[in-house]
Amino acid sequence: MDIVKNYINGLKKAYYDKNGKEIWDHFENIKNGVSKKDITQLKKVFPSIPDSLVNLLEYVDGTYYREYREEEITFYFLGSDINGYPYYLLSAKEINENKKNTKYWMDMIEEMRDYDNSTVDDKIAEKPNEIKWLHFSDCMNNGGTSTLYIDFSPSSKGNVGQIVRYLHDPDELKVIAGSFDDYLKMLIDDKYTFINEDTVED
C-alpha cells in the first residue's frame, strides 16, 4: 500500500507543479473507487492480480471515458517507458471485459515473431497459446498506439507479474518492469514525465 500512496501523492504534486491543480482537485472530488462486487469478480478472473493494482482501483475505478456523478472523464493517470506519453487506468469492468482479447494476442504475437519489422521481448512466452495477460491501461489516443499488460505467463527468462508494453508502428512488445510495484516505482523515479504542460492542457 505504501507504494500506491507514494505514487498518488507524487502524481498529485506533478499535476500541481504543471499548473494542473484545478484539474486534479476536480478529479479527486468526483472520482470513486471500485465496488466490492467488481473487485471480487476481478479477483476471480485474475487470482494473481497484484495488491498494488487493487489498491489503485480502490482509489479510482478507472479514468478512461469513465462516468462519475453523471460526468464522463478522461484523466491521465499512468505512464510507461515512453517519456512524456500518458496513459489511462482502465476500470475493473473494462479489465474483465478485455480478457476476451486473449485470442487476438495469441495470433498477434505469432505474426510479430514472423515479421522482421516487429519485436517481441524474449521474456514473453514462446508459445502464444499459453499467454495470460491482464490489460490495465490504454495510452492517450484510445490505446491505438500503446497498451499495458500484467503478464502472468512469462517465458523462462521473465518473471510472473512482469509489465508488458505494446507499441504500434513498428509493432513492439517489451517488458518494461519486473512487477507492478516496480512499474509504479519506475514512474515515480522518472518524476512523472508523462504529466507536463501539454498533457495537462489536453
Describe this structure in words.
The chain has 202 residues and is an alpha+beta fold. It has a single domain, classed as SMI1/KNR4-like, CATH 3.40.1580.10. Helix content is 39%, strand content 18%. The chain contains eight helices and eight strands. The protein has helices at 2-17, 21-30, 36-45, 51-59, 92-97, 102-114, 180-189, 197-201, and strands at 66-68, 71-73, 87-89, 119-120, 133-139, 146-151, 162-167, 172-177. A six-stranded mixed β-sheet has the order 3-5-6-7-8-4. Strands 1-2 form a two-stranded antiparallel ribbon. Helix 1 crosses helix 2 and helix 1 runs parallel beside helix 7. The longest helix is centred in the first third of the chain and has 16 residues, at 2-17. The two termini are 30 Å apart.
The CATH topology is SMI1/KNR4-like
CATH architectural type: 3-Layer(aba) Sandwich
Provide the gyration radius in Å.
Answer: 17 Å
Main β-sheet, spatial strand arrangement: 3-5-6-7-8-4
What count of structural domains? Answer: 1
The CATH class, by name, is: Alpha Beta
